[in-house]
Amino acid sequence: MAQMTMIQAITDAMRVELQRDPNVLVFGEDVGKNGGVFRATDGLQKEFGEHRVFDTPLAESGIGGLAVGLSLQGFRPVAEIQFFGFVFEVFDEIAAQAARMRYRSGGRYHCPIVFRSPFGGGVKTPELHADSLEGLMLQTPGLKVIIPSNPYDAKGLLIAAIRDNDPVIFLEHMKLYRSFRGEVPEGEYTVPIGKANVVQEGSDVTIITYGAMVHTSLKAAAEAEKARGAKVEVIDLRTVWPIDIETILQSIQKTKRAIVVQEAPRNSGVAAEVMAQIMEKGVLYLEAPVLRVTAPETPYAFAQIEDEWLPDPARVLKAINQVLDF
Amino acid sequence: MTTGLIEVSNSEKFTPLQIIAPDGKVKNSNMMPKLDDDQLRELMRRMVFTRVWDQRAISLNRQGRLGFYAPVAGQEATMIGSQFALQKEDWILPSYRDIPQMVWHGLPLYQAFLYSRGHQHGFTIPEGVNVLMPQIIIGAQIVQTTGVAMGLKLRGKKNVALTFIGDGGTSQGDFYEGINFAGAYNVPAIFVIQNNRYAISVPIEKQTKAQTLAQKGVAAGITSIQVDGMDVLAVYKAVYDATERARNGEGPTLIEALTYRYGPHTMAGDDPTRYRTGEEASEWEQKDPLIRFRKFLESKGLWTKEDEDRVIEETKNAVAEAIKQADEYPKMKVTDLIDSVFETTPPHLEEQKQEFLAKEGN
To answer: For residues B57 and B66, is the Cβ–Cβ distance under 8 A?
Structure first.
């Protein structure tokens, strides 16, 4: 198996699917000759030609509309939104158009589009580049939202997303792009959409998280074990919508305590939804309130204070201690 | 102080293409499209049918037998002339008022009525009918048309994607994004602006300082033309020529059709007397597309009062039959709606479905 960074795994997923299915098209701003500002599409235009991998004019709604129109002709667009902070510009095409296509056509048309986009803090991007806006997508019926945390999942989930006949938002945390390598199989494989992954088993408390916060949570878990021998179970949601509540319930039945960790601001997002579902289906398993560790409810504090603003292992550890000592 | 240079850049104007004058006389015979007598009569039949259907729909709406409806009277020449210039395999991306074009392109009339009532089957477009559902978000159809047109080009088809937008819609960002993409990719797209002078109540003069809407295409490098939208032959000619250009790989065309809606913006409470004068409306009625084309046909011996009466009768029967079909169609269910969100309904929605299954007695 090859050792790959997450971005190499993402490129590889697109290469595999471009090779396999002539209907797959990759496009966005700077994705062609330049290979994307992060090089996620590096070499793909050279390999597959300008009809399959191409640059668009600088206009996000245009990219979304192009994707919707092409999908109506049987293509499977993989559209890159250069930074997820720019999603507001294309939100109509995602939320009111692609996500509603099955409903609006009584099932006659569908939009098998993947909207790929880098996001996530800790890499000192300019304003409105890093923001975790996945919560916005959760209240949009018809979308699936994927946030991988490692190279293996990234490739398998992206292939699954490209093959999915519904629109998928695929968010790539910028800090994870090149921070480590992992084993990634050659060729085709998929990781199922809608299935969480227990990345570390434990018996005392469950952390439910995703994206870069998986790594932050694992650090906090290690410190908790060192400090007080606590065994922390860490669940990586992988698909943040729909949420795999079964895996969460199985875990809290065992640990009886839960913390949700997300990089996004506090209210109404993935953490709030996980907590709501635990309340509906698992409240009797609990011996302590479910806590969440999140960024504060403010605009993303880019550059200067982002390290303090983002949840860190110390804050997660504090929450672990709180639920254990309740 | 003005420099001559700046004045020059603003001075170019478009002159609308007109073939039949309001009195029914041929004004521009060298532009006359190649249509045989049957086709000319069919254009008239469709315009009369659409006018009568519109009157019936307004009345059905008032009786509470239809839902959302946007009247079309006044705009028949633009709507009918555009669709008539297309081939069956060409695509139409309509806006909320463009129901006639959808129906003439193949959507059964009863489905248009079901759509008005909010039934999903209303916009379940039959196989082989290349139209999209009516767009509600102003401008979204423009960016999508570029995508459909690119798809047709990539598939090697000699077909076009045609879309409609109103004068107000040309203020939307998506309008500019879509026509710019279409130009950049040189795709077979046709953008028809139905300039009926009002975006609900806001007149074109308050919408833009642009002297014409056709000139908005110039910035995108798109071939653009203004036509008399009350002249069905002028509209037909402009759209037909645009399809020829598109089929020959010559790229997109923008057509501004100058037209007018006699009625309110929609039947949901809009009152045009708040923002339009009676004089203005009667001025436009002088240019009526049906009167003008009827006179033209009568002068050639191609249309009689009997023809007109026959189409009126035919329409009334067709509308009555379609309403009956819509009335008899099974009511939509919440469980059907839930199952239409994803290809495979995920567990969280299956769970929500159970509650409605019980309510619906299944």
So the answer is: yes
Question: Using one digit for the tens of pLDDT, what is the confidence trace for A114-133?
Answer: 999 999 999 999 999 999 99
From the CB of residue B38, how many other CB atoms can be counted at a distance below 10 Å?
10
B170-180: burial string, b at 16+ Cβ within 10 Å, e else: bbbbbbbbbbb
Instruction: Give the closest of B148, B152, B341 to A103, CB-based.
Output: B341
CB A254 within 8 A of CB A271: no
Contacts with A, B 116-175, CB within 8 Å: 120-125, 132-133, 137, 140, 142-152, 154-155, 161, 173-174
Q: What is the pLDDT of residues B246-262, one digit of tens each?
A: 999 999 999 999 999 99
Q: Do A169 and A145 form a contact (C-beta atoms < 8 A)?
A: yes
Q: Looking at beta carbons, which residues of chain B come within 8 Å of A104?
A: 123, 133
Check B181 against A56: CB less than 8 A apart: yes
User: What is the C-alpha separation between B257 and A250, in angstroms, rounded?
Assistant: 63
Residues 19-38 of A with CB under 8 A from B: 25
> A94 and A167 in contact (C-beta within 8 Å)?
yes
DSSP state of B17: B
The span from the CA of B310 to the CA of B69, in Å, is 26
Cα(B204)–Cα(B7) distance, rounded to whole angstroms?
22
- pTM for the structure as a whole: 0.95
Hey, what long-range contacts does B310-316 have (CB within 8 A, 24 or more apart)? Answer: B311/B44, B311/B45, B311/B48, B311/B49, B311/B52, B312/B48, B312/B52, B314/B49, B315/B48, B315/B49, B315/B52, B315/B53, B315/B56, B316/B52, B316/B56
Chain A residue at shortest CA distance from B173: A61
* Among B185, B329, B341, B344, the residue to mutate for chain A (most A Cβ within 10 A): B341
Q: How many angstroms separate the Cα of A240 from the Cα of each of A159, A170, B81? A: 17, 10, 49
State pLDDT tens for residues A129-170: 999 999 999 999 999 999 999 999 999 999 999 999 999 999
- Going across the sheet that includes A258-265, the strands are A197-200, A232-236, A205-209, A258-265, A291-295
Contact yes or no for A25/A70 (Cβ under 8 A): yes
Nearest to A261 by CA among A284, A279, A237: A237
Whether residues A105 and B125 touch (CB distance < 8 A) is answered with yes
**Residues of A in Cβ contact (< 8 Å) with B124:** 105-108
> Catalytic annotation on B115?
no
Of the residues B265, B276, B292, B294, only one is catalytic, namely: B265
CA distance A196 to B176: 42
Q: Which residues pair with A170 in a beta bridge?
A: A116, A146
Contact B147, A65 (CB under 8 A): yes
Q: Is B261 a catalytic residue?
A: yes
Residues of A in contact with B102 (CB under 8 A): none
